[in-house]
Design a protein that fits this description.
Number of strands of chain B: 26
Strand content of chain A: 25-35%
Strand order of the largest sheet of chain B: 3-5-1-12-9-10-11
CATH class of the largest domain in chain A: Alpha Beta
CATH topology of the largest domain in chain A: Uridine Diphospho-n-acetylenolpyruvylglucosamine Reductase, domain 3
Oligomer: heterodimer
Strand content of chain B: 15-25%
Shape of chain B: globular
Largest interface: A-B, 21 and 26 residues
Largest sheet of chain A: 5 strands, antiparallel
CATH architecture of the largest domain in chain A: 2-Layer Sandwich
CATH superfamily of one domain in chain B: Aldehyde oxidase/xanthine dehydrogenase, molybdopterin binding domain
Distance between the termini of chain B: 62 Å
CATH class of one domain in chain B: Alpha Beta
Structural class of chain B: alpha+beta
Number of strands of chain A: 14
Chain lengths: 287, 750
């Protein structure tokens, strides 16, 4: 097995392109576990953490750029980012334990393409854009398009995500992410739901996004659930309609983590609860 | 040996909270666990495991693996050319290395030893096993049906009536009186059906061992176990060795809870060492632990109880169907014995069923068989109390067993602590503080465990400087080094710090039974006290010799020999240290020892109270408050006793709420890891409050009863009773995981 630690994104891309079975190493909290369990046997590991600037959170055109080497703990400690995107940060902070938080990255979580990835729904709800570097140059792709099915991404051979861009928050915006786990920590989502809202001057919802995790082969944009909130003040009627639409949008399977019926029910519950929190945050109230 | 009589006394050391002797080693990493043992030139051993739930093994081709560079030995069942005498050890052999059939997902079918882990892994892939996949069964009720796939032919005992599958190996029945008459006398009868899932003990440390066997056939084995004598005896038979040629040393142990009363890797490692001529180290991964060690039985239980309006139970009936995995076990019998043990019943009848399925063999797990039985019985008792409009504790007090009660499983109780436990719970602030708020419920239940004594051997050396070296032969899984040192210090009249207790290997002491049945503080404690008394007798004789008086004229008081009275002569007392210093001049080294098959282990009762809150929209359960009451006889080291009570409660909470072995339609375990096998994490739990009661065991010199197991018996029912109240629907199936609870809440609402 070869181990490489390039210092430029171009070098990383050409190394990745040159090998059939290469893996990107950022935090390593998934890759090392899989290596040890014998689930993957890559020919080459490309550590991207030595690329300059890859561990930075930077303000850019009113939004935020988060590098592929940024640990979820670093996101949690970034007050300005947390003020703009509390839902994105709380999703990232749910990954693993305190120890894992110091290493794991949001982009690693995205690129594992796990249906239950906690950081993905809020990124998608925020309209986040992935900055993809590949052997043929760079491209920008909506985060929603990165995962395609469990364990599979839309990234081509040699491509990796160097950063994710969160667009400007704007005034009167707020987001939230909730997941359901049977325990209180150290668990994997049976259902995840992110809600991102922007309010008009009169306090009604102008733009909304409701995104579901763990209830389909990839993250789901529940457009009707979002539509149920637009023009409302997230009153009980609107929240009930949002919940019903979210339940309808969920396409879970029966497995060891829950039944179809349970997951659809809980999807609605979380959509309602997350919408209430996002609305409170958008209004500038504490939640 | 006859039971030893309890004598009331004032304790100086026993009952205090002295520092634990293993603490520094464990927090600094100096402690050596199973996987920490190494030897020069050692190989790595790995097991090849069946990917099928049930399959005939047509052939195994190991030639490619054997030809690989770095592979030093490959072992299959063909290498074990013995037929053990007992059916138990024949089963152990079949379990550690499959014979003609693989009986469960994860069953070992071959093993390799190689110069590195990666070579060993590659060698496993090179072994070709030709399987004929057979139909399988993993559910207990399905396995009992006459047309179920059969695991073993010809193993059914005569106790099983006709009409059942050969998977039903045994039936056992207990009780007295006339239950039909009892139910006729009842004003109210409740009958319910219950199920529980298989759970794992969840010890932190996976199984691990290091085996070395020389060309002369002598062998040494280091392993993580609850009973190294048992490991020695079993391995010697499976390897065709004389017992005395195998020395087994137990490592520090990272939890067992009954799950390490077993033998899995050890005979395989010894065989690999015999074939390779090198030391072989084997460690299980967590996945292997979950797939192929010993979880609990899953169960299907029917309970019927009748009571009069005045609250007196008139009859109890129970049918306990236990899924024991692929080999014979007696969990069903234990469940049938324990379920009604807390009650004074005129009419009681229980039946236990032992059923094999295509799952790993069930091992002991803290009071094996009892928690599931208590879940079923205590749920119906709770419902009866509710129907009768009685307080759950008052209802139990009215029907509680006491001294002289003929127990549901046969014997008549000596002094027991159940009523004291119930009264302590009733008087406790937890029970007397109203539980307010929506979706909340309080539960209560009691539990029973037998406890055990067994073969025990202890040696106690008086060192020249007046310190004491104490050797016991049971791995310290619950504080036995501290407790034994305390009892030795108490008896000898010296400070606790002057005693160091070690766990001796199998060549250094007589037979010691497994650390099970909550036996160690009772039985090894008894032997320690007797070994100390033996040493005291020798020291008194030495003093008598120095003073020139009769041995009978010397008594032992506060750590010193002194003349027994004015007529004995006038001499200054001689301390233990002074006598020790003169030992070589007065007859040589001074050591006490004691060997016994201890009887008189006192039964132990416990009661638990839990407050829970249910999220009616998701089925999530939060445990708000929890209190454990338990009779310890005498708490030698209260910290450890409280730890046992808390640990039992926590494991029971996990069993009640989220832990379960989940098998797919294909008979493959779906959740062999701690992500999807959900043990409670710290943030899931409130502080577990404890209340130790001390009703002396008449069969121990200090009144000690075992405390390790009773604590896991009540929590399943306690949680079920609490959650049922909080959710407004009676929960009869464990775990009460959110999907199951939410479905029950929705069904109840219509």
């Amino acid at each position: 097995m070869r181990f490489e630690a390039p210092t430029s994104p171009e070098d990383a891309a050409s190394l990745l392109a040159a090998t059939d079975n290469a893996r990107v190493l950022a935090g390593g909290t998934d890759l090392l576990v899989r290596l040890r369990a014998g689930q993957v046997e890559p020919e080459m590991i490309v550590d991207i953490k030595r690329i300059a600037g890859i561990d930075a959170i930077t303000s850019e055109d009113g939004g935020w750029r988060i590098g592929a080497g940024v640990s979820c703990a670093a996101m949690g400690e970034h007050d300005a980012l947390g003020a703009d995107y509390p839902g994105v940060v709380e999703g990232a902070e749910l990954i693993g334990s305190t120890q894992v938080q110091g290493r794991c990255t949001m982009i690693g979580n995205l690129c594992n393409a796990g249906p239950a990835a906690d950081s993905v729904p809020a990124m998608v709800a925020a309209g986040a854009i992935a900055h993809v570097v590949g052997p043929k140059g760079t491209r920008e792709a909506p985060v929603f398009e990165i995962p395609v099915s469990p364990g599979k991404t839309s990234l081509a051979k040699g491509e990796f995500i160097a950063s994710v861009y969160l667009p400007p928050r704007g005034a009167r915006g707020g987001d939230a992410y909730l997941r359901f786990i049977p325990r209180t920590e150290m668990d994997i989502a049976a259902v995840g739901c992110a809600v991102n809202l922007s309010l008009a001057d009169d306090g009604t919802v102008e733009k909304a996004s409701v995104v579901l995790g763990a209830v389909g082969p990839k993250v789901i944009e529940a457009a009707e659930a979002a539509a149920a909130l637009i023009g409302t003040t997230c009153d009980d009627t609107a929240l009930a309609a949002c919940a019903e639409a979210a339940t309808a949008a969920a396409t879970p399977i029966d497995d060891k983590r829950g039944t179809v019926e349970f997951r659809k029910d809980v999807t609605g519950v979380l959509a309602r609860r997350a919408a209430r929190i996002a609305y409170t945050r958008a209004k500038g109230e504490t939640s | 040996m006859a039971k030893d009589e309890f004598q009331s006394r004032q304790f100086k050391v026993v009952g205090t909270r002295v520092p634990r002797p293993d603490g520094v080693d464990k927090v600094t990493g100096r402690a050596r666990y199973g996987a920490d043992i190494t030897a020069p030139g050692m190989l790595t051993g790995l097991c090849l495991r069946s990917p099928h739930a049930h399959a005939r093994i047509r052939s195994i081709d190991t030639s490619a693996a054997e030809a690989m560079k770095g592979v030093k030995a490959v072992v299959t069942r063909a290498d074990f050319d013995v037929t053990p005498e007992s059916s138990g050890n024949r089963d152990v052999l079949d379990n550690v290395m499959a014979g003609d059939k693989a009986l469960y997902d994860g069953h070992t079918v071959a093993a390799v030893a190689a110069t590195s882990r990666s070579v060993a892994r590659a060698a496993l892939k090179a072994i070709k096993v030709d399987y004929e996949v057979l139909p399988h069964v993993t559910d207990v009720d399905e396995a009992m049906k006459p047309d179920a796939p059969v695991l073993h032919e010809g193993r059914q005992q005569e106790s099983v009536p006709e009409g059942y599958s050969q998977n039903v190996l045994a039936r056992s029945q207990y009780g007295h009186g006339d239950v039909d008459k009892g139910f006729e006398e009842a004003d109210i009868v409740i009958e319910r059906h219950f199920t529980t899932a298989a759970t794992h003990q969840g010890y932190i440390e996976p199984h691990a061992c290091l085996a070395t066997m020389g060309g002369d056939g002598k062998a040494d084995l280091w392993c993580c176990t609850q009973g190294h004598y048992h490991v020695r005896d079993t391995c010697a038979e499976l390897l065709g060795m004389d017992t005395g040629q195998l020395k087994v040393t137990s490592s520090e142990i990272g939890g067992g809870f009954g799950g390490k009363t077993t033998v899995f890797l050890e005979p395989v490692a010894l065989m690999l060492s015999r074939k390779s001529g090198k030391p072989v180290k084997m460690t299980m991964s967590r996945e292997e632990v979950l797939r192929a060690s010993g979880p609990t039985a899953s169960t299907s239980v029917s309970i019927k109880i009748g009571a009069r309006k005045d609250g007196r139970i008139t009859a109890g009936w129970g049918d306990f169907r236990y899924q024991n995995g692929a080999f014979e076990a007696m969990n069903g019998a234990l469940g049938a014995m324990c379920g009604f043990a807390p009650y004074d019943l005129e009419n009681v009848r229980t039946t236990g069923w032992e059923v094999v399925t295509n799952r790993p063999k069930a091992a002991a797990y803290r009071a094996p068989g009892a928690p599931m039985a208590a879940f079923a019985v205590e749920s119906v008792v709770d419902e009866l109390a509710g129907e009768l409009g009685m307080d759950p504790i008052d209802f139990r007090l009215m029907n509680a067993a006491d001294e002289g009660t003929k127990a549901a499983y046969g014997p008549t109780y000596p002094a027991i602590g159940l009523k004291s436990v119930l009264e302590a719970a009733k008087d406790h602030p937890h029970w007397n503080t109203p539980l307010e708020g929506e979706n909340r419920g309080r539960g209560f239940a009691v539990g029973f465990w037998f406890n055990f004594g067994g073969n025990t051997s202890v040696s106690l050396m008086i060192n020249g400087d007046g310190t004491v070296s104490l050797s016991e032969g049971n791995p310290d899984i619950g504080g036995s080094r501290a407790s034994m040192s305390m009892m030795a210090a108490e008896e000898l009249g010296i400070p606790y710090e002057h005693v160091r207790c070690v766990i001796a290997d199998t060549a250094s002491l007589g037979q010691n039974d497994i650390t099970d049945g909550s036996r160690v503080t009772f039985a090894v404690g008894l032997a320690t006290i007797k070994a100390a008394r033996h040493a005291i007798d020798i020291m008194k004789a030495r003093a008598a010799r120095i003073w020139g008086i009769d041995e009978e004229a010397v008594e032992w008081v506060d750590g010193a020999a002194q003349p027994a009275g004015p007529n004995a002569g006038k001499f200054e007392p001689m301390t233990l240290k002074e006598i020790a210093a003169l030992a070589s001049k007065t007859g040589g080294p001074i050591a006490g020892h004691f060997e016994v098959n201890a009887e008189g282990a006192g039964v132990s009762f416990g009661a638990h109270i839990a407050d829970t809150e249910v999220d009616p929209e998701t089925g999530a359960v939060k445990v708000l408050r929890y209190t454990v009451f338990q009779d310890a006889g005498k708490a030698v080291h209260p910290d450890y006793v409280e730890g046992q009570m808390q640990g039992g409660a926590v494991q029971g909470i996990g069993w009640a709420l989220n832990e379960e072995y989940i098998y797919g339609e294909d008979g493959i375990l779906q959740n062999p890891g701690y992500l999807d096998y959900r043990i409670p994490v710290a943030s899931d739990l409130p502080m577990i409050d404890t209340k130790i009661l001390e009703i002396p065991n008449p069969g121990h010199p200090y009144g000690v009863r075992g405390v390790g197991e009773t604590g896991i018996v009540p929590p399943l029912a306690t949680l079920a009773n609490a959650v049922s109240r909080a959710a407004g629907v009676r929960m009869t199936s464990l775990p009460m995981s959110p999907p199951k609870l939410l479905a029950a809440i929705k069904a109840a609402k219509g």
